[in-house]
Amino acid sequence: MSGPTGDTHGEPTPVTVRLDADQFKVAAANPRQMERTVAATFLLGLAGFVGFGAAYWVNASNAWLGVSLGAGFVGLGFGMVAWGKYLMPRGPFSESRHSMVPTKAEKARIISDFSSRGKVVVERRGFLVKILGAAGAVFGVVAMFPLIRSLGPLPKHFSEATHWHKDSYLVNVNGERVHKDDLEYGGVLTVFPEGDVGGALSQTTLVRQLPPKGEVNIVTAPGRETWSPLGYMAFSRVCTHAGCPVALYQELTHQLLCPCHQSLFDIGPGAAAQPVFGPAPRPLPQLPLYIDAQGYLRAQAPFDQPVGPSFWWRRD
Amino acid sequence: MIDGLYDWIDDRLNISGGGRKMVNKIFPDHWSFMIGEIALYSFVVLLATGVFLTLYFVPSSTDVVYHGPYIPLDGVHMSEAYLSTINLSFSVRCGLLMRQMHHWAANIFIGAIVVHMCRVFFTGGFRRPRELNWIIGINMLIFAIFNGFLGYSLPDDLVSGTGIRISYSILESLPLVGPYLANLLFGGAFPGNALIPRFFIIHVLILPALIAGLLGAHLTLLVRQKHTQFKGPGATEHNVVGAPMWPTFMAKTQGFLFLIAGITALLGAAVQINPIWLYGPYKPYLATYAVQPDWYMGWLDGALRVMPHWQTVIGGRVIIPNVFWPAVVLPGVTFTVLMMWPFIEQKITGDRADHQLLERPRDRPKRTALGAAVLSFYFVLFGASATDVLANYLNVSLNIVLTTFQVLVFVVPLATYPVALRICREFQATPGAGKTKRHNIVIRSADGGYSTVPTEARPGDTLRELEPVALDASIYLPALVGSPSYEPVDRAGIGARAAAGGTYEAVSVDDEAEGAEGDQGLAAATTGAEGGGRARSRVFRIPRNYRGG
Q1: What is the pLDDT of residues A123-156, one digit of tens each?
Q2: 20 to 30 Å CA-CA from A95: which of A120, A179, B41, B156?
Q3: pLDDT surpassing 80 at residue B36
């Protein structure tokens, strides 16, 4: 009855096994009953597939389609597992396991075969191998060219990637120019340079805050005295952390919040849009604005730095 | 006809010679060996449903306007990719089911890989000679996560579009080559116009082909090296004990494929997943509250959140951007250490021997505790991907939640290690803990005391005690075909016990019984005998780690 043990190499000695041994009997206590159970689940599966066909034919709802298909598969699957578990030889059975480590002789044979021929091929004609290797290496390098030259443009100077220019009109999502009377104090609007509505890099948040008493502009940092006429301030909407739109404005605290990773930027007077919370490492770039003779909001100049997250060699 | 076909092929390829080995190949029985099968079969479901989806999905970012049965989006500008996904969901027959099954199967696929990996880790299945298969498995996990993310991104909805934006920033954060790589992959500055077609071909061809190739290698190595097994009756380092490929394992595993497909279909029918029509098409300037990626990216999103706002600046130039640490270094280190683990452990323990028998987690307390601590680290990161939701839900400030997670991410693993170590040692010190047991009967006696007695053996219980039959070294008498041996082995025993009135069936809730002493009640309940004391007893049957059959 017992199989060979302990032997990792060589053929095991055959053992005689009687097929009426307990190991070949089924595990079910009541095979007839188990047969009926399996038959019932198979029939459920069959019915499920018929139902799926019908549901598909009449274009039934997703629920009907899925439940009938699921019933079909679950019925078959349950039945087959029960069949395998209860109505097949219960075992246990075993097979012997052989070591994966080759014998010394096996190793020696392949090494000698390989090296004896290898000497002739490689060592005697080493210069052929060298040329072949050089050609392969050059091809490897050349094969990269299409990837580098054609997959996409090489990165430009990044601040040029936005479409903001000197005197660009601010327009809203519908492309309409923004007038100085459009926003109440505390209002917020997503704006773009005219001609790039919806632009992923040009997107800018326009906020109107009540300037401090006795002043017309809001000064977020020294040198930005004229950037926020009548309390209108514009900040790049691309988060300096991972590039999500900094879409939420908290009026009471004068803060912009990025919904992705919760970086919080303070856009109050003197705060320079510095991050005050969260993982963002840099302030949001501010767009200098002016109001033209007709009362429309326009950019004094493009952003003074690349917008968006940090990257290699970017000026900090 | 079939015989003829078999002969025809056999005469040309000699299947009979090596084929018998496959037919007799033994698969050990343990529930935990099923987890890998879940991964395998959900991959099959992924391929099947994925082929259906490719017939209707249009990988294009061309701007189009939707007019169709879903009224809320009527007249809205969107990409063709988004529109075709909406059509798949509302206009293509069975399309929504296939989409939802595909998404569910993807989540199950990656989940099963992770759990399977944990099983192999905690039982030492990665030890020599299986280091290679461990590495192949880790690579499949990496590809599966990538492909899951790409597939999730393809519909070009608002939530996934935000994810792509973040992934662009992550790519861009690589020192030196980042901006170039990001531009090349996306075909220009974000969003680029090449993104969706490229993601599509990577998602449906390149990564599935890689996964399928690795899967083939994984299974080939499994067959070549044979399955590991737990210690048990007859199981040694030199054999494999279990069920043969034909017919038992075939029936079970085929059934299992159907079960996975069926459960995925039921999920697709009943549990909505990724309802992109509610999110709307991607617009780079829109964002939604509580945007979370699929679960397998959660730890990375959490890492992005808990990472402090540091970046490396030298001479006024950014050298290492902030997101590089949580989004590139963390997964890089994670997967490198995972892949190297078999060798790291060999270095620590000095154990370089072949191992075919698995270890129980408790028997390697330090490895188990380390694994638990590392897992807890990723669980905390996963939790951290919901800081905003938690802050909202718990009604506390975001600052408090984030700072808490920044602390927890260090504290929880440090606390987990000694606790897990202690649990392992307690288990080791408890003889018989976790061993296969029979049902226990808990009996409350008339005076309120409790006691337990094991039930009598059930038919399956004796199965494990039989000696394994070595299929590859046996000569059968009489021949298997036509053998009258497919008879229940224990039918007579059951009958006899039932007749004697002493089986567990006879032990039942006996509220009506009245009277006397606890001891008598116990006796009556366990034996089920008539007469005796009529105790007011209540009997519960509790399966404890029952593993029969």
Answers
A1: 788 888 899 999 999 999 999 888 777 887 777 6
A2: B41
A3: yes
- Are B125 and B182 within one domain? yes
- The two tokens of residue A14 are 């055959």
**In the listed set B288, B317, B332, which residue is the last one of a domain according to the structure?**
B288
Residue B207 has which token pair?
A: 């990564």
Percentage of residues of chain B with pLDDT beyond 70: 83
Those of residues 262-301 in A touching chain B at CB distance below 8 A are 262-263, 275, 277-282
| Contact check, Cβ <8 Å, A152/B316 | no
User: Using the beta-carbon criterion (under 8 Å), do A244 and B25 form an inter-chain contact?
Assistant: no
* Judgement on whether residues B385 and B523 belong to the same structural domain of the protein: no
Q: Does some domain include residue B359?
A: no
B478 pLDDT higher than 90: no
| Domain membership flag for residue B193 | yes
How far is residue B81's CA from residue B56's CA, in Å, rounded to a whole number? 10
Shared-domain flag, residues B385 and B446: no
Q: Does B136 share its domain with B160?
A: yes
- CATH code, B227: 1.20.810.10
In a domain, B476, yes or no: no
Per-residue pLDDT tens digits for B112-121: 999 999 999 9
pLDDT for the residue numbered B519:
38
Q: Where are the domains of chain A?
A: 22-86, 110-150, 155-316
Q: Which residue of B has its CA nearest to A34?
A: B488
Cβ neighbours of A111 (radius 10 Å):
11
Which residue of B25, B354, B485 is in closest CB contact with A24? B485
pLDDT (tens digit, 9 = 90+) per residue, B385-434? 999 999 989 999 988 999 999 999 999 999 999 999 999 999 888 776 66
pLDDT of the residue at B458: 62
pLDDT digits (tens, 9 = 90+) for B10-27: 999 888 888 888 888 999
A144 touching B (Cβ < 8 Å):
no
Write down the CATH superfamily of domain A155-316: Rieske [2Fe-2S] iron-sulphur domain (2.102.10.10)
Q: Nearest to residue B376, comparing CAs of B420, B332, B424, B329? A: B420
**Structure token digits, residue B407:** 């602390």
Q: Which domain holds residue B383?
A: 371-429
User: Which of A308, A301, A312, A260 has its CA nearest to residue A284?
Assistant: A308
- B446 pLDDT exceeds 90? no
Same domain for B85 and B203, yes or no, is: yes
A125, A129, A132, A136: CA torsion to nearest 10:
180
| C-beta neighbour count of B312 within 10 angstroms | 16
Distance from CA of A158 to the nearest CA of B (A): 9
